[in-house]
Amino acid sequence: MYTKERSSGRRPIIISVIGPVVFLVLGVFIYWQITRQHNWRTSLSEVMSGVTGPLQWKLWLVFALMFVNWGIEARKWQLALRPVGGLPFGNAFKAVFTGAAVASFTPNRMGDYLGRILYIREGHRAQAIALTIACSMAQLMITLVVGLAGTLYVGAASHRPLPSESHLPLALNILMAIVVILLVSLTFIYFRLDWVSRLLLRIPGTQRFNTYLKVLENLDATILVRILFLSFGRYIVFIAQYSLVFAVFGVNIGFWQAGGGMSVVFLVMAIVPTFTFLTELGLRWEASIQVLELYSPNTVGIFAASFAIWLINLIIPALIGSLLIVSIKLFKSR
Description:
Layout: H1 2-35, H2 40-52, H3 56-80, H4 89-103, H5 112-116, H6 125-156, H7 168-190, H8 193-201, H9 210-214, H10 221-248, H11 255-271, H12 281-292, H13 299-324
Helix pairs in contact: 1-13, 2-13, 3-4, 3-10, 4-13, 6-7, 6-10, 6-11, 10-11, 10-13, 11-12, 12-13
């Protein structure tokens, strides 16, 4: 009895420390990642100027759209969880922020699943991971489809002349080939999850995962299509955010140029492995420069825009999520 009470007393203390510790560790990693980037001081100065400049309202609108962005993601996840009883939207909204915090320490944001399932009642967490993967697959499919269209646009539309030593045309062709293969494969899997589940269960040794894989058979076509439409809506929010920040930092390009260029950048970010999203800033900057300098020579502004979006869309939600950890009922002693 004494041991149980002592253990119960310790749990709130331990959990009350986890959130702030994650918050502090994130802060250190953010500082390290920023200061190792080329021209980070200039980019940070540009961001601060934008915050206080006449177009600062656009940055605040981008910040507001961040909540729209993650709200759409929460709704997607809420739909995907219907086969296991669903989840209130408020909890789903908190879960995606907590997932962002946990994802910051894992390759290609895989920890996002672990952060989210903390809000799922015991007995359904493994099933929720399978459903979350299906949800993420929808966003990847939209990224591939729009990215493929953007790649064709960038290759065909008029832009600044390429240097003779540029490898961009070859890189775009290779990228398109990879995208087509991935898109065909994912589309088949996504709309045949029930078939994939049954196929996997025929493999020797997979019977113990029967409960977790069978849940995929309960995702009907209506839900899958709705998740795809929500994924597309989230993608539009991304493009709108970039269009706004480009204007703030003097990157004078049109909406279609911004949309086409950034769809290629998103495509690269989706395909190229990254250790964590805290270390993807360099890749994000490099990809943005390589593509968007076709339309604007303002590389400093492109750097600043990429940094602002990275900060607003990824880092702030991760910091919020790290503090939400202390409120998760899973960890409460009662």
